[in-house]
Amino acid sequence: MAFLNKEIRDGDNQDLTEERRTATFDTDKMAEVIYGSEKLARRRREISHAVSRIPELADSRPLPFLDRFEKVTEGTRKLSVLDRHLAELIDVNDNGEALHLYHEVMGMEGHPLALHEVMFVPALIGQASDEQYEKWLGRAKRREIIGCYAQTELGHGSNLRKLETTATYTPSTQEFILHTPTITALKWWPGALGKSSNYAVVVADLIIKDKSYGPHPFIVQLRDEKTHQPLPGITVGDIGPKMAFNGGDNGYLGFDNFRIPRENLLNRHSRVEADGTYVRPPHAKIGHSAMIRVRSHMATGQGWLLGHALTIAIRYSAVRIQGFLEDKSHEVKVLDYQTQQHRLFPAIARAYAFIFCGFETIRLYDQLILDMNSNGNTSGMADLHALTSGLKSVVTHFVGQGIEQARMACGGHGYSMASYISEIYGVAIGGCTYEGENMVMLLQLARYLVKSVELVKSGKANQLGPMVAYLAVADHKVNLATGPDSYVKMFQYISKRQSWKATEKFLKFMENGDSRDVAWNKTAVELTRASRLHTRLYIMETFIRRVESVTDIPVKSALTDLLNLHLNYELLDVASYALEDGFMSSNQMDFIKNQLYSSLEKIRPNAVSLVDSFQFSDMQLRSVLGRRDGHVYQNLFDWAKSSPLNKTDVLPSVTQYLKPMMEKAKL
Ligand SMILES: CCCCCCC/C=C/C(=O)SCCNC(=O)CCNC(=O)[C@H](O)C(C)(C)COP(=O)(O)OP(=O)(O)OC[C@H]1O[C@@H](n2cnc3c(N)ncnc32)[C@H](O)[C@@H]1OP(=O)(O)O
Ligand SMILES: Cc1cc2nc3c(=O)[nH]c(=O)nc-3n(C[C@H](O)[C@H](O)[C@H](O)COP(=O)(O)OP(=O)(O)OC[C@H]3O[C@@H](n4cnc5c(N)ncnc54)[C@H](O)[C@@H]3O)c2cc1C
């Protein structure tokens, strides 16, 4: 039975319409699964529609044609228009609606509030005491003040223990003195710091009576609230153009013995008494909770970014006609080539998997915050830190790969900014670095895995958390034909074996006399492999759980095809781990490959509808190549004609330089 893909409209490209007619599920119903509820999926469409009726909210020109200064100005302009219309467009207390509105209008290139909502406000919520809430949170939420999160320095980002900015307590005045002792201590990178924010949560080394207590968060006013001039003692500015995010003002910040009151240490968990007595937090790393929050949200956000690139590539592949299959009188859609499907469909499966897995992880984070705030229970922190460290690393890496494949799948036009894929790529791969460089974070998860294996080795397997319980399970041969659970078991075997092998190797180096740190470094690559496998297993399990919970039968069936593709693709990718000790047979390898190829065929008729189900409007997508109407060639030609270079037939640079050169050559 075919369902109406809700994207069909009169006048659209016929090849795309044909694809949309073959859908075996309702794209509105699929959107409900992707966005977690009927209400949010519907509200997204309503909000996009409402935005399209406010001309001032549209980009004044295509963003790729703007220079940096114009991008920053354009982002700020739209933000101010949005501010006037906010209450009429969304329920301002609904985060899902707000997130969609910002994606729709502001796009992904950055704006003055980019870090305010994502890190400044959450840092206050997580770290501020009740009195500090009273003083700052309302003002921040009303946007009387704009803030950012200033932690990374020019010389240190990953190793927080060596941050150089100091916050020295002075009991006589009950103040902290913030100071930047060297050039490497300048804060460097924080989003929206350079030009937009007038406040920041600054992470600095707390010093009391010459003793260092490590990094702590402080709320700091940077600029005068009336004039927006930097306050005396503050040096602040923009760090210059980046691979992407060029509508954003990532900045630098220095302090010259800048004084803030004692009350500005965010003191929900730890505090400094008037006399300089330090009161410890219930968990040493509780100050890192703003980072855990962002890491928890990254899988979903990155899944959507991959979804953007795939919407463009799949729609284009259904419109692009090139080459022949059987019938030599008609060229075929490039989407009919198995290689094109193999390039794109596993990435669609991953986009869905990352989104689903992200939702589950966000729930874990929300539970942790509830536990911490209601009864001071921090016992879930280590588990969630390990999980989100692995997740942000694996997801950002695969999303980068998937987006790059989407670009190549669009041939030459993928390379044009008209596709917008390079911008999506630039934004997405920032995630490989921010919130913890990927290798560094994989090694954080590895610490947890090694500890877990050590527990099993010392007969304490009963102390393992549920996510690592498989590390203690005995090996059994697996029959893959019995369904998803057998794939999980095979993956568990592979992941367990790698965690054990890496741990044994690490312990062996120590037995042979290496220090813990040296042994760790000599095993680091194997350890990161263990972390990746463990994380991919988690993603696989959450994907299975989500598909099992879907009630709409046609949607569930289409998702099951995607899930099967994912299971086979993932297992094939890591099969060498199980082949090397004969746990997996070559017959099983053939089985996996054949299942994979048959999944590609099953997914083919639904491919366009699977990406249409993300329901990204043309405005949100900002891609000339990937527009819903599929009129690729006309749209590209119109876009090219609008290039500023085409305003005149003869450029001044030609008259000034090229012509004289050519004339001289004639002499
Ligand atoms: C729409 C787009 C928006 C884009 C927004 C982009 C915004 C970007 C913002 C940023 O990038 S903010 C800056 C982010 N910076 C980082 O992420 C820095 C990365 N480094 C770290 O997080 C830490 O330095 C570290 C690597 C985790 C190490 O921390 P630390 O030196 O303090 O600990 P260790 O001594 O290595 O470990 C001790 C012990 O503590 C455990 N642990 C560490 N962090 C946590 C945590 N957050 N929660 C719980 N436990 C933690 C660690 O696992 C060790 O445990 P054991 O193994 O000893 O048991
Ligand atoms: C787009 C973007 C936005 C950002 N926004 C913010 C923000 O809002 N606020 C903020 O405070 N910061 C922000 N940052 C900074 C970001 O958090 C850091 O760049 C990041 O944490 C990585 O730290 P680093 O730059 O010191 O990298 P480095 O640690 O110097 O990494 C360099 C190399 O060293 C390796 N390495 C480092 N340590 C180890 C180790 N222990 N073991 C093995 N390998 C290691 C890394 O794997 C990497 O290959 C942003 C960065 C970007 C790109």
From TrEMBL:
Subcellular location: Peroxisome
Main location: other
InterPro entries, A to Z: ACOX_C_alpha1, Acyl-CoA_ox_N, Acyl-CoA_Oxase/DH_mid-dom_sf, Acyl-CoA_oxidase, Acyl-CoA_oxidase_C, AcylCo_DH-like_C, AcylCoA_DH/ox_N_sf, AcylCoA_DH/oxidase_NM_dom_sf
Binding site for FAD: 152, 191
Residues at the active site: 435 (proton acceptor)
Stored SUPFAM superfamilies: Acyl-CoA dehydrogenase C-terminal domain-like (SSF47203), Acyl-CoA dehydrogenase NM domain-like (SSF56645)
Keywords: ATP-binding, FAD, Fatty acid metabolism, Flavoprotein, Lipid metabolism, Nucleotide-binding, Oxidoreductase, Peroxisome
Pfam families: ACOX, ACOX_C_alpha1, Acyl-CoA_ox_N
UniProt domain Acyl-CoA oxidase C-terminal: residue ranges: 484-663
Gene Ontology biological process: ascaroside biosynthetic process; fatty acid beta-oxidation using acyl-CoA oxidase; lipid homeostasis
GO cellular component: peroxisome
Pathway of action: Lipid metabolism; peroxisomal fatty acid beta-oxidation
Co-factor(s): FAD
Leader sequence residues: none
Domain Acyl-coenzyme A oxidase N-terminal: 26-146
Acyl-CoA oxidase C-alpha1 domain: residues covered: 289-450
MF (Gene Ontology): acyl-CoA oxidase activity; ATP binding; FAD binding; fatty acid binding
UniProt family annotation: Belongs to the acyl-CoA oxidase family.
PANTHER family, sorted: ELECTRON TRANSPORT OXIDOREDUCTASE (PTHR10909), PEROXISOMAL ACYL-COENZYME A OXIDASE 1 (PTHR10909:SF250)
Name of this chain's protein: Acyl-coenzyme A oxidase
Organism: Caenorhabditis brenneri
